[in-house]
Structure formats: structure tokens, C-alpha cells
Amino acid sequence: MKIWVDADACPVVIKEILFRAAERTQTPTILIANHYLKVPPSKMISFVQVSTGFDVADNEIVKRAAPKDLVITADIPLAAEVVEKGCLALNPRGELYTLSNIRQRLNMRDFMDTLRASGIETGGAPPISQSDRQAFANNLDKLLARK
């Protein structure tokens, strides 16, 4: 198993949890982003910078991820693609995307996009809370224990 991180929008605190887990479990962890990111020196942690552009980082993750790999992303369409490919997908708040829940998430995302496009203010996601961090760390540990 490898961990692929949609790193452009991944919160720093979540990256730090991932870095510690990669070292502790000796799991290769690859961050993909279209801007430079500093990662700790480690044989287990690497960074791939892709060109800027719409979904360039997402497409790179889809191309490289293999079944049973874990993808960390809050991007619902990316999660849907990798789940259908046989990967695991975990969002930074600790929610595991599965074949049984990803369609519902996509439908809700599309509905919210439609509301925003019609001028309705929907607000954004709240900041990552301590309980979100804990849920992420707990679910990450469970998934890595299965590898």
C-alpha cells in the first residue's frame, strides 16, 4: 500500500499526521501538488510537483494510484475516481469514501455547485477541528493496520 496525498488543499496538521504515520508504519507516502511543498527528509515521504492547471494533480493521482492504495483528499470527484479504481479514499476530516457512499457525496456536491451557480451563498467548510484531526488519525491508523 502507498498513500497518495492531494496536497494542494490538504491542511498542514493532516500532513503532519501523515508524515508521522508514514515513518511509524514504513508506508510510502507521496504528496502531489502543483506548487512546491517542503517535506521532511525521509525514505518514506516524497513529493511530486505537477504543472498548474485544472485537475492536473488529481489526474496524476488517478494515473499513479493502484488498487488497495490509500488516497487522502477532500475532492469528491477525485475520491469517486480512485474508489472506483479499487483504492481507499479518506478525507482530512476522517471520513472514508466507499462505493456505497461516494455517489451520495457526488450528488450533494453537484447540488451545492448548482446553488452557488445560481447566486445562493452556501458558505464553506468549517476549519478542521480537534475532533476532525482525531477522527482522521484514528481512521488512518485502522487503514494502515490492514496493509
Using the 3D structure, state the CATH architecture.
3-Layer(aba) Sandwich
**Chain-averaged pLDDT:** 92
The backbone outline, from C-alpha atoms, is globular
Rg for CA atoms: 15 Å
What is the CATH C-level name?
Alpha Beta
Fold-level CATH name:
Rossmann fold
Sequence stretches where pLDDT stays below 50 over 5 or more residues: none
Strand residues, percent: 5-15%
Domain unit count: 1
Tally of strands: 6
Q: Which secondary-structure class do the elements indicate?
A: alpha/beta
Q: What is the H/E string?
A: EHEEHEHEEHH
Folded structure, characterized:
A six-stranded mixed β-sheet has the order 3-2-1-4-5-6, with helices on both faces. The radius of gyration is 15 Å and the shape is globular. By secondary structure, the chain is an alpha/beta fold. It contains five helices and six strands; from the N terminus they run βαββαβαββαα. Helix 1 (12-25) packs parallel to helix 5 and helix 3 (76-84) runs antiparallel to helix 4 (102-117). It has a single domain (3-146), classed as Rossmann fold (3-Layer(aba) Sandwich), CATH 3.40.50.
Task: Give the structure's gist in a few sentences.
The protein is of the alpha/beta class and 147 residues long.
SSE order and pairing:
Layout: E1 3-6, H1 12-25, E2 29-33, E3 45-49, H2 56-64, E4 70-72, H3 76-84, E5 88-90, E6 96-97, H4 102-117, H5 130-145
Parallel strand pairs: 1-2, 1-4, 2-3, 4-5
Antiparallel strand pairs: 5-6
Helix pairs in contact: 1-5, 3-4
List keywords for this structure.
147 residues; globular; 15% strand; UPF0178; UPF0178 protein SAMN05216262_12730; Rossmann fold; alpha/beta
